[in-house]
Each structure stands twice: as structure tokens, then as C-alpha cells.
Amino acid sequence: MKDPVDVLIIGAGASGAAVAWSLAETKMHILCLEQGGWMNPAEYPSTGRDWEAKFYGEWSSSPNVRGRPEDYPVNDDNSPIKVVNYNAVGGSTVMYTAHWPRLHPSDFKVKTLDGVADDWPIDYDTLTPFFEENDRMMGTSGLSGDPLSPLTHPPMPQQPLGLSGAIIGKAMNKLGWHWWPSDTTVATMDYEGRARCINLGHCTPACAQGAKASTDITYWPHAIRAGVELRTHCRVREITTDENGMASGVVYYDKDGIEQFQPAHVVIIACNGVGTPRLLLNSASGRFPNGLANSSGLVGKNLMFHPYAQIYGYVKEPTDSNRAPPTCLWSKQWYDTDLSRGFVRGYGVQFVRGAGPVFEAVVSEQKGILPWGADHHRVFRKLNGHRLGFSAICEDLPEEHNRVTLDPVLKDSHGIPAPKVDYTISENSRKMMEHALARGREFLDTAGASDICVNSPIPWGGWHLLGTARMGTDPERSVVNEWGRSHDVKNLFIVDGSIFVTSGGVNPTSTIQALALYIADQMKQRLASLFD
Amino acid sequence: MSDQQLTLTPRQRDDLRTIAAMIIPASDEYKVPGADDPAIQADILATLGRDTKLVVAALDHLARLAGMPLADLEPVARAGVAQKFRISGGIAAATLVRVVLQCYYRDDRVLRSLGLELRAPFPRGHVLPDGDWSLLDPVKARGGTLRRAP
Predict the structure, then answer these.
(1) How far is B9 from chain A (nearest CA, A)?
(2) Which domains does chain A have, with CATH numbers?
(3) The 3-state secondary structure of A68-101, one letter per residue
(4) What ipTM was reported for this prediction?
(5) Quick check: pTM over 0.95?
(6) Tell me, what's the pLDDT at B5?
(7) Is B4 exposed, middle or buried (0-12, 13-18, 19+ CB in 10 A)?
(8) pLDDT of residue B4
(9) Cβ atoms within 10 A of the Cβ of B15, count?
(10) What is the spatial distance between Cα B31 and Cα B41, in angstroms, rounded to a whole number?
(11) Average pLDDT in the A488-509 region?
């Protein structure tokens, strides 16, 4: 039998990397098991002429389309929003837009402020030092001083405004609406061994330059140098427990497909909002018949996605197209609750700079605005390089019927039951999306855009996987306590997006990593009494 | 049979070439080939990969609609079949169209006509104008208040 490790982390993505790095200073024996492998930037799409075609196959954001050996299938047939993720060292930070807003202070107190959902058991101020630490580690760029966002101190200047940014800024100014350069994790200058951004283009599916922060090139090199062991191509099947109801280790399949048992004194789950409930439900036992850490019955429930309401059009002036990172500006004009709008809570906006020629052709043909035949060439030249987009990230409120369960039939390549997602968009979210589309249309009209198209929701937009193992002080209404420890299993921790109580209206990765660093800090402070 | 083992029959290749030309015909005005150009067709066939199964299904559907080689139909009938194919072909037809477009819009002659560079994005990247940040002055002047939590 293998020697037990002090801490076993499952998942080497955004939160797993952060918690591993933070705990490394304890000099404990820390092991991370990751189902994917190390990425090779020489194989990233932007290194080839066929970079756009790869998005439809091996570099699709959908694990179901991609179907790499490292991926597991997801049954999301019963959801208008499909799950997207990436499985590798770095996790979904390998494949994300690098847009880097934080949850707002008000997002932690939605029950108190707006009478909906629940307050978080912690507040924004508790996380502030960890947001700052995380921004230094990931390397952020931006402009401090946004009057409608929490104060941040990005170590690098904001991305260039570019052609698209200037058009967006002018239109928003005409309307008197808020906009600001986004905080991003795109390095705008050389930073901690990373080369600055050279505008490779649509860098969502990995950055060959290494300018976009992913944890394989930020946290992991530091964590490994500090002594953390990272085992790749190891897929965990279940967490085991002992006669005292404590986690005793994990059963996993190694790179050769051989079943292994790894004992551990502490287990930390960092598999995000679909992978984490899947693992807990797959860890059911005689003592925990409904799944591990599930005495509340809430494991897998309250899934929040952020429905995206996207509207875009085509302006006469050239836009940045594929010659820049996809996002550069945000707006918080409609972030806070205003009941006169007909819904509670609100949304952030990320503006879209444009698209590459293949994507433009494929999507425009599907939308019916790019014809077949002789007129194809004229119309394509009007569209290509002229797209401008407005994407609203609508706050999804927790609802127990939106959930992750185990599919009774579908399994991954190791025979482990796959997750099944059941999700509907709420009436409140629909009203919010309609409001956003109307504002987006005003924006596009003001910018002089034509050929307006809508994606609401963006069907392949399930990037943000939140809420399925929520935190709280009441064991009957939450899965983990206010510092990430399972109420039921006192040496089991969760540090990923599944512990979100509410979703806010912004991309969540910055907050996920701040939470992971906060929980690691709590563990370090409580080492002598961690299991009390 | 795996996608790699699946191949297109001569009739399917002919129909693919014909429908590709209907999607994107050659243009003297823009000095570009049609999507039935031999080099573009060769690229499509060489890179079908995981799309082969759906493209074959689309071509089978097209053959059923046409009832004969697509190129042999009169132009009006051919256009009618193409329209029916796009409307009723589902994901298979969408995949065939996407495969044609993704190969067409990486052809050197086409990219040159669009004024795009014939290269991968890495390692040269692109230059982006920093822009006029005084555009942000009205936002700064307007200010605002972050909603505070109790």
C-alpha cells in the first residue's frame, strides 16, 4: 500500500493550483492528482494556419465535442446551456477569456440587500487580501479606479483600446453609460517569466505566447519548486472513508489505467461545479448512502451557470477582428438591483472585439445573414472584420431543481458514471436577459451597427459552474462551512466554484481562486485543531 | 468503421464539389476561386477527420433529395435541392457547410483577396493601436458609487 500523504488535492486547475501553492509553505507532504496532463504550447491552435478549424474539433470548449482521453462526458441534453470546461494541468484556465472581474461586496449579502437567495457566510473584506495575492500570482492587467467596481491594483497596465475599444467607448459615452478597461490576466508587459501579449488573436483556447495566465504557468511552477507532488493522468473515482466517517484517501486510475488507492490525512476537492458533485455522489457508501458530505441533500443542487445574453452587429469601420484578445472592456451600468427594471439583481457586460474569418463565415451562414451563391463574396466582405459584440453575464440565482446528478447510463472511459445536468433558466433571469438585449441593441444602434444577431442564451456558454456544494454555517442548508470544510466529514475540504452561495454577475475565476487561498489560510491557522 | 476508414465515393466527391460551388462560386470581381477549386477540395478531403461521418450523412441526404448526380440537374432544380438540403439537413448539413467554409477561408488566394496575412498568428502576433484614452474622461467625471454591503 502507498504511504499516506498529509494533503491530497483532486484537480490541478484554478483552485487546486492556488490551494497547493498556499499550503506548500507548511512543508506537509502534498499530492495533487489531475486527470489531464501537462499542456504543450507548441501545439496550441495559434501556432498553425488551421487555428480556427481546431475550435470545432480537438480544441472545442465542449468536452463532449472534444472527446480527448482526459475528458469525461457530460449529459447536458436537459439544459439550454451546455457545459464547457478543460481538463489538464491548469484546468479551465487553459481555455478561458482571461476576463478578471471580482464579485462585488454586495454580492455576498443578497438576502440582506434584496431579499433573495442567501447571504454568504463570509464577506468581501474577508477575501480582499486573497484577491490581492491572487492578482499578483496570476499577473493581472487593468486600470485601477473604476468607480463602479471594487478597487483593484493590477500590476500591469490595461490592454490597448484598439479599434473596437474606441468604437465601443464612443458609443457608450453618447449614451452616458458606464464602461471601463477590463481587468484581465493577459500580461501587457513581461511578468514573472511570462512574455507580454503580442495579440495572437482569439486566445480563449490557450495562449502560445504564455501571456495569458493559466495555472500551469503561474501557480504550478512555484508549488512544485516548493515540494508539492503533482501526478498527471490520474482520474479519481471515489473518496473513501474510515470507520470514524473521516476521509481515508481516494481510489484512482493511474496513467496506465491501473486502479490505485492513495491514503491521505486530508482531502481537498478542486473539481469545480460539475466535477465536484459528481465525485461526491460517486463516493456514496454504506455510511454515506446519498453521497459523501451530503447530509443536507444539497450536493449537486443549486447549479448556477450565468446565462449569457449576447447581441452583436456589424459597423462600417474595421474592428480588431482576430487581431486582439477577445475582451478588453466591461460595463457595470446594470450590475446592481433596480426593481423598476422588472427583475432583481443584475448583470455585468463584457464587450467583444470581433471574430476571425472562419468563425465569421460559419456563424453568419448559420444565422442566415451570409448567403450562398454569387452575393456571398460581397456580403462576407461587409461582415468580416466589422463585428462588435455586447455580452451580458446575468446573475443566476440558486434554485434546487437546477442540479447535477449521476447519469444512469453514460460513463467515462474508466467506467465511472458521468454527470447529468438538469437546468432551466428562471423567469427572473429571462427578464434580465431581455433587458440586456434591449440595452445591447441601443448600444449597437448608437455605434451604427447593422445586421444585428442574438444569442440568448449562448448555448455553448456554460463556462461558470457554481453552487453545487454551497458554503454556509447551517449544516442543513449547506455542504461546507464558512472556511470550506465539509460539515459531515471533518478532513474533507472543497475550494472550487461549487461552494459559491450566489453567482454575482461577473466571471468567477478570480473569486474562486481568492476563496481557495482564503481556505488554505484558514487551514494553516487551524492546523492544530483542523478536525475539531 | 472509424472516421479515418470512411472515405467518400466518387459520386459523393462529385456532389461535394457541386454543392461547394453553390455555396461559394468563383468570382472574377474579387479574384477568388470557388469552393469547388481542386486545391480547396483536396484540403477538405485531407482534413475531414472527425467530421467524415456527418459529411457522409449529409451527402447521402443530398443524393436522396437530388435523385441523380447534383451536377446533372437543371440549374433551377439544383437550386431547389440545395435549398431543401440546407433547411432539412440538420447537423449533418451544417457540418458539411462548415467544413467547406473553414477550408475556403484559409486558402492563400482567398486570404490575399481579403487583405489578410498568409500565416499563423504565432509567433508574430499583431499590433494594436493603444487608442485615445481620453475617451474615458466622461466616465471618470461622472463617477459613481459602489453599492456597499451592510
Answers:
(1) 24
(2) 5-354+386-527 (3.50.50.60)
(3) CCCCCCCEEEECCCCECCCCCCCHHHCECCCECC
(4) 0.96
(5) yes
(6) 59
(7) exposed
(8) 53
(9) 23
(10) 18
(11) 98
Quick count: other Cβ atoms within 10 Å of Cβ B3? 14
Residue B3's pLDDT is 55
Residue B114 has pLDDT above 60, yes or no: yes
Nearest Cα of chain A lies from the Cα of B105 at a distance, in angstroms, of 6
Residue of B nearest to A356 (CA): B105
Whether residues A209 and B86 touch (CB distance < 8 A) is answered with: no
Q: Taking CB atoms and an 8 Å cutoff, what residues of chain A touch B111?
A: 357
- 8 A C-beta contact, residue A314 and residue A150: no
Binary contact (A160, B128; C-beta < 8 A): yes
Q: Report how far residue A25's alpha carbon sits from residue A200's, in angstroms, rounded to the nearest whole number.
A: 36
pLDDT higher at A312 or B145: A312
Strand intervals (E) in A140-290? 180-181, 229-231, 235-241, 247-253, 259-269
DSSP state of B11: H
Cα separation, A479 vs A470, in Å, equals 6
- Residue A156 three-state SS: strand
Helix intervals (H) in A176-320? 219-225, 272-282
Note the pLDDT of residue A505: 98
Neighboring chain A residues of B48 at a CB cutoff of 8 Å = none
Is B2's pLDDT higher than 60? no
CA–CA distance, B45 with B79 (Å, rounded to integer): 24
pLDDT in tens, A68-116: 999 999 999 999 999 999 999 999 999 999 999 999 999 999 999 999 9
How far apart are alpha carbons A60 and B49 in whole angstroms? 15
- Whole-angstrom distance, CA of residue A473 vs CA of residue A282: 25
Q: Report the distance separating Cα A68 and Cα A365, nearest Å.
A: 28
H or E segment and range at residue A404: strand A403-411
In the structure grid, which three cell numbers stand for residue B47, read together?
482534413
A·B CB contacts under 8 A: 169
CA distance A276 to A259: 20
Q: Is A311 helix (H, G, I), strand (E, B) or coil?
A: strand
- Identify the pLDDT of residue B38: 98
